[in-house]
Target: 18935_t:CDS:1
Amino acid sequence: MKSGEINVNNDERQLSLLKISRFLSFLLNATGVVNELQEHPQMKYVRTQITQLDNSIKNRSIKMGLLETLTEFMNDELISYFNSGVGFDDEITGEMLDFLREKSHEHSEIAKHLFSFYYKWCDKTVDFRAYLEDLTEKMESLKDVSLDDFTSQDYWLPHDTIIEISQKVYQYRDSQTFENMVKNNVKDEDMQSNVLNVAIIFREIVIEQYKKTCDSYKNWQNINCSEARIFWKDISKEQVVHELEIMAGDASLYRRRQKQDDLVFSIEYLALIPPYTTRLKYLKQVLTQFDVRDADKSWVVEMLKNLENEDMKLDMLPDSFQKLNKHLNELNGYTWSVVKEFNFANEFIKYLLQNLIGRDLTNLINGKYLIPFDPDKLKL
Model:
C-alpha cells in the first residue's frame, strides 16, 4: 500500500485496518519519543482512514456491508480505535455503536421475518414471486446500501406494510394450533389473492383470534372439547407442551401458569376421541347385530354418548377415559379387528342369524366352537 493513497469508498481497506485495530490503537496511543513514528506516512494514512470512517458514521454514508463487519467488534475496542491519536470534537460513543449494531441486526431480522411469511403463507398468491424477488435483490445489494438510504422511509417498499405483521407471525412459524387457526378462519380464495391482502387478513382476523383463543386457555376448564378438538387438530402427544409454550408467549411463562399436568393430559386425550368413538360405534353395532340384551343401557352406549357430547368440558376428559379404559382393558387388538370385521359384514351376519341359525345365538357359538354357551352371560 502506497503512503497517501486514499480511497474514501474503499471499504476493503477499512476492513483490513479494522482487523488490526488493536495494534493500530497501540501505535497511535504510544507515548515517549514517538514523533518520528507519528509522522510516518503510514500512520498519517491510518489517521485519515479513521477520520473518513468516523465521518461516514456520523453522516450515515457508511455502507451496510462495512457496518455489519464493524459491529462484530466490541464497543471498547472500536472506541479505542476511533479515538486513538485523533482529536475529534464529537467522539464516537458506545451509544452510537449500539445504534449501529441495532440497525445492522434490524435488517437481517426484518428479512428473516419477511422470507418466513412469504414462503409459509403467501406462496399461492398471484404476486408471491414479485415480492420474493424484490426482497432477495435487497439482500444481495445490501452491502452497497448506505445507512442513510437504509433508514429512509422508502427503502422497504413494497414490504413496509407487511413488516410488522411478519414480525408478529414469525413467533408462530412452528405452531400447528396457529396453522389450524388460519385454516379455520381464512378461505382458500383469500389465501390465493395477493400478498398484501393476506397480510391484512392476518392482522385483522387471524392474529387477534389466535391471541383471544390462547387467552381463553387461562381458564381452560371451561372450554368445550368440540371447540378444542378443532384447535388442536393434527397435534401429537409430543407436541402439546411446545404448543402451550408458544401460546403462553415463552416457556417460563407457561411453566409459571401451569402448576399441574391436567391440561396436558386433557389435550392428549383429545386426539384419542375420534378413534375411540369409531371403536365404540363398531362395538355398539355388534351388540345390535346379535340382539344383546339391554344393549342400549350398556357401558358402550354410555361411553359413546360422553365422547360425542358437544358440551363436555376439557377437564372432564381424564375421568372419562379412565372409566373407559377400565372397560377396554380386556379387549386386545385382535378383538377390535373381529369387531371391525363384523361391522363390514353386517348383511352377512343378518343372513346367518335369520336364515341359517335362526335368531338363537347359541346355535352359532355351539355349532362353530362346540362349547356350551349361555346368551344371558353376553351382557355389557
